Automatic annotation (TrEMBL):
Transmembrane feature ranges: none
Top-level taxon in the UniProt lineage: Eukaryota
Residue segments, region Disordered: 124-154
Gene source species: Trichocladium antarcticum
Name by which UniProt lists this protein: CENP-V/GFA domain-containing protein
Keywords (A to Z) from UniProt: Lyase, Metal-binding, Zinc
Zinc keyword on record: yes
InterPro entries per UniProt: CENP-V/GFA, Mss4-like_sf
Family according to the record: Belongs to the Gfa family.
Pfam family of the protein (one): GFA
One Gene Ontology MF term: metal ion binding
Length: 154
């Protein structure tokens, strides 16, 4: 899939034509990060990041005590990719991707939702317990170094 930030300075292609999973998160962190009602994330196998000189990184703790690395465009501030150590998957922010099929999205942290959850959607009051990436999940959850940014791993 083609991805771009708001200003067009950062562009990249995902390693697969469709995401392994698609999440819409209604937690307070995603609401703050997007300045909106929810955040959306498409899960893909780990791939090299765009050029380091184009990105900045914000690190924050997760609810499980890990560190999440949040990469964004230095020029316009668009959040693009999130990574967590110990996983061979990355989360690409849904708004920067062309052509996502939103009907399959799983809704998380619905207890803090500011908008109605579509009827019939898979939804969880908090986290789903385990991320669902399909048959390759065990392999994808094994640690590896993130490539693409000098001095930053995740």
């Amino acid at each position: 899939m083609d991805a771009t930030c708001q200003c067009g300075a950062v562009t990249f292609k995902t390693p697969t034509a469709t995401p392994l999973a698609l999440y819409i998160c209604h937690c307070h962190n995603c609401q703050k990060q997007t300045s909106s009602a929810f955040g959306s994330s498409a899960i893909f196998p780990r791939f090299p990041l765009p050029a380091a000189e184009l990105l900045s990184c914000y690190m924050r703790p997760t609810t499980t005590g890990q560190t999440m690395y949040c990469y964004f465009c230095k020029q316009c501030g668009t959040r693009l990719i999130h990574t967590t150590p110990g996983r061979n998957v990355v989360s690409v922010k849904g708004g920067c991707l062309e052509g996502l099929d939103w009907k399959t999205a799983i809704h998380l942290w619905t207890k803090s939702a500011m908008v109605p959850i579509p009827e019939g959607s898979e939804a969880y009051s908090e986290e789903s317990g385990t991320a669902k990436y399909g048959e390759a999940q065990e392999e994808l959850d094994q640690p590896t170094e993130l490539t693409g940014l000098t001095g930053l791993t995740g």
